[in-house]
Automatic annotation (TrEMBL):
DUF427 domain: residues covered: 14-103
Taxonomy, superkingdom: Bacteria
Pfam family, one: NTP_transf_9
InterPro entries recorded: DUF427, DUF427_sf
Gene3D superfamilies according to UniProt: Domain of unknown function (DUF427)
PANTHER family linked to this entry: BLR5716 PROTEIN (PTHR34310:SF9), DUF427 DOMAIN PROTEIN (AFU_ORTHOLOGUE AFUA_3G02220) (PTHR34310)
TM region positions: none
Name of protein: DUF427 domain-containing protein
UniProt lineage: Bacteria, Pseudomonadati, Pseudomonadota, Alphaproteobacteria, Rhodobacterales
Length: 113
């Protein structure tokens, strides 16, 4: 089992896709897992979920549980499976329930502002 640490992310964080701001939060969480780069989890209420379309993709993590995926749909592009959420996470990571994380790419940016 990989050691997972969750803490409040310092400052305010923003996520952008295709130039559009999908959300901004001063209540984001930072999840660190082993040697992986930390991941910022945004409260669902701070994200423009109207731009997200649930996809059929799911994954399973022994430490966190089952993840559901969403695509980002904006005026000009669709970024497939760019967002994930543990809707019923394992008890050890219960804090990430009702949070969304983003696959950072050329079209999706997560930044501290």
């Amino acid at each position: 089992m990989t050691k997972i640490q969750i803490r409040k992310a310092a400052g305010t964080w923003v996520v952008r896709s295709g130039g559009a701001v999908l959300g901004e939060s001063a209540n984001a969480l930072e999840l660190s897992e082993g040697d992986l780069a930390p991941v910022i989890y945004f409260p669902r209420g701070d994200i423009a979920t109207a731009l997200l379309d649930r996809s059929d993709k799911t994954t399973h993590c022994a430490d966190k549980g089952d993840a559901s995926y969403f695509s980002i749909v904006n005026k000009s592009t669709v970024t497939d499976n760019a967002v994930w959420s543990y809707e019923n996470p394992n008890d050890a990571v219960a804090e990430i329930k009702d949070h969304l994380a983003f696959v950072v790419s050329d079209s999706v940016k997560v930044e501290q502002i």
